[in-house]
Specification:
The protein is about 30% helix and about 25% strand. With about 350 residues, the chain is α/β, with parallel strands linked by helices. Helix 1 packs across helix 10 and helix 10 (about 305-315) packs across helix 11. The chain is globular. It starts with a strand and ends with a helix. The structure holds nicotinamide-adenine-dinucleotide (NAD).
């Protein structure tokens, strides 16, 4: 069993903890919190051992009703690998602690790429990740773009990808984020940093990104244009993407018209927290004009990096191949949405015929 600790139990950390606990070859030894708040209470209710992220705050936990198993140092002594899910920039500050305990670490996309030996996406990364002693799972947007561009580049060749990212202003729990009544270019400079971040995974793919922030919390939306080195039909591209296990093609007649209905669907089918681990691509948006491919995809920022963290843990600590870890993670979490309304060979969803 791979003994895993999660340092930072927020939006990403709590999901990674649940995903690790579900793996047959992993043991979740514990999670850390900086203070005994509702998140810490929820972790204890879920049966997870709680550790104080900051040593001198252990008294705060001991003063509460929550029992704490120790400090971050105790956790690091008891595990084979740590997943750092602390806020952006804090992972870099935590790194010397992990090094001191000789504990391999998985970092998140809010950190600079230099925090780890290699950046990681299970579908897109090259073989260099195999020899790394630390990995950085790229951000939610970069994860979504890497999963899309990797198969397109392998099959057709990508001459140039241009993507406009309409980013959610904040996560649902982030009450202090915005904007609340505007759509703002963010960053105002073009291209944004997302394109270069994709190159940490797919170094040879030419990609420019521009980003905005919108007053929504559910998901990011990507408007994608890829100039290909070939001229496939839209149906061929759709079939290619349908083969990707971490891509959900939203059927034309499903009545899913945005992030609200997507998240509603995820909750209705019993996904934990309504999470969508897959890229969600509107099937009828997939269009080809000559060598130009267009599509819209949505990315659930709280969820898409979660299976990637599980795969990063296995990649750091075992000899399991990327294909094997992807399929084991998919199987244990139930990833690979295939709608019962999926399209027939004409590209139309068959439900209308039955109505
Ligand atoms: P978050 O604020 O929801 O959670 C971070 C947690 O870490 C909080 O519980 C906080 O109390 C705790 N923490 C604070 N200081 C700490 C310390 N010194 N040591 C350990 N824990 C500490 O943040 P998040 O959204 O989960 O983001 C975590 C990382 O994941 C960031 O790098 C972020 O960029 C990245 N990420 C976030 C999203 C997203 O949409 N939320 C998506 C992909 C990647």
């Amino acid at each position: 069993m791979i003994r895993v600790g999660v340092n930072g139990y927020g939006t990403i950390g709590k999901r990674v903890a649940d995903a690790v606990a579900a793996q047959p070859d992993m043991e979740l030894v514990g999670v850390t919190k900086t203070s005994p708040n509702y998140g810490a209470e929820a972790a204890v209710r879920r049966g997870y051992d709680l550790y104080a992220a900051v040593d001198d705050r252990i008294d705060e936990f001991e003063d509460s009703e929550l029992s704490v198993a120790g400090t971050l140092s105790d956790l690091l002594d008891a595990i084979d690998v740590v997943v750092d899910c602390s806020p952006s920039g804090i992972g870099e500050r935590n790194r010397p602690r992990y090094d001191a305990h000789d504990t391999p670490a998985v970092f998140q996309g809010g950190e600079d790429a230099s925090v780890a030996d290699e950046s990681f996406n299970a579908r897109g990364s090259g073989d260099a990740v195999r020899d790394a002693e630390s990995l950085r799972v790229v951000s939610c947007n970069t994860t979504g773009l890497s999963r899309l561009l990797a198969p397109l580049d392998e099959t057709y060749g990508v001459e140039k990808a241009r993507v406009t990212l309409v980013r959610r202003g904040g996560d649902p729990s982030e009450t202090d984020r915005g904007p609340i009544n505007d759509v703002v270019p963010d960053p105002r400079t073009v291209p944004s940093h997302h394109g270069p971040d994709v190159n940490a995974i797919l170094p040879d793919v030419s990609v420019d990104t521009a980003a905005l922030k919108a007053p929504v919390t559910a998901m990011h939306t990507h408007s994608v244009n890829v100039t290909l080195a070939a001229e496939p039909t839209a149906a061929e591209v759709r079939d290619l993407l349908a083969e990707e296990t971490r891509v959900f093609l939203i059927p034309e007649d499903a009545g899913i018209d945005g992030a609200g209905t997507l998240k509603d669907y995820a909750a209705d089918i019993g996904r934990p927290r309504g999470d969508l681990w897959e890229n969600c691509i509107w099937e009828e948006s997939i269009s080809v004009e000559g060598d130009d491919l267009y599509l819209f995809q949505n990315v659930h920022q709280e969820a898409d990096v979660v299976p990637e963290n599980v795969d990063a843990i296995r990649t750091l600590t075992t000899d399991v191949s990327r294909t094997e870890t992807i399929s084991l993670t998919n199987e244990t979490l139930g990833i690979g949405l295939e709608s019962l309304l999926s399209a027939d060979e004409t590209g139309r969803t068959p439900i209308a015929a039955d109505d």
